[in-house]
Fold this sequence. Notes:
Layout: H1 13-37, E1 56-66, H2 69-78, E2 83-88, E3 94-102, E4 105-111, E5 120-128, H3 131-140, E6 149-150, E7 156-164, E8 171-178, H4 184-187, E9 201-209, H5 212-221, E10 226-227, E11 234-236, E12 244-249, H6 250-253, E13 259-264, H7 267-276, E14 282-283, E15 286-290, E16 293-297, E17 299-303, E18 309-314
Parallel strand pairs: 1-4, 5-8, 9-12, 13-18
Antiparallel strand pairs: 1-5, 2-3, 3-4, 6-7, 7-8, 9-13, 10-11, 11-12, 14-17, 15-16, 17-18
Amino acid sequence: MSPNKFSSRIPSPRTALRCFALFALAAGLSSFAAAQTAPAPPAAAAVAAPTTLPPMNGIAHIAIRVKDIAASLDFYHKLGFDQAFANTGADGTVTQSFVKLNDRQYFELYPVTARDTQIGFMHLCFEGADLNGLHDYYVAEGLTPISVRKAAAGNLLFTLKGPEQPVGIGPQNIEYTQYMPGSRHTLDFGQHLSPDRVADKMTVVALAMQDPAAAQMFYLSKLSFTQSKVYPDRLDLPGASGQQVEIVPGATLGAKSSSILLESSNLDKAAAQLTRQQVAFQRADSSYTTRGRTVHVQMISVTDPDGNIIRIQAAQ
């Protein structure tokens, strides 16, 4: 038997290269066909709006336009409240002052300008724990808030139009914020908290409205506030803050004046601070009935340089 009977024939290099190319082409066509017939990956599901209102932490600030920033800062300093920081224009003029009540609450003061000459209440801001969720909830309720954005101080922010204020002013501008790490507010935690502060927190802000009944309905049905069980004109903020807004007719406050209720853990100390700083104040005690008993509330009242009323109530 010939020794080459069962030997394999070795293909030439050109033949081998041709075979490899044909094999690669077949494999590529097979992969392409599989890709064309394979189902596309599922699209990312849209994030559904919350079905319940995300938590709200309380009132963040009240914004007021004042005729004299320096005079207003001096007044609040006498009450023990100091400016934590401020925004300034190119010429160094203060355009917005942040006067601190506590780590989560501020008075925001704006000066009058050639364009904005009307002093008084500008807006109220609420603090949310999940601002994007809160925004989407309101959209689902048929409201039209602006998109969530980052404000100059470094916190998240959005606004929406509220009920009509007294004639000639227009709809209320309602603001919402979420304090973010690294913002000017969070970096100031624990600072600018004088022991001479006449109050510890802001609990109620009165809102003058053209139609108080319609305004109450807006807050109840659209913003998920609830009626106070003690004061019919007050509405409880959603959540556990215990803070409220009070809806009043425009004639009660005047077109642009504010009425702010603060809470003090030591009202006698607050009165002593006002006396020491020669700030005029009045006793304004009140009472209410709850669960069959009458509760007496000790209170003092002061007025700022622009006519805004600040009431200071003993903590309950």
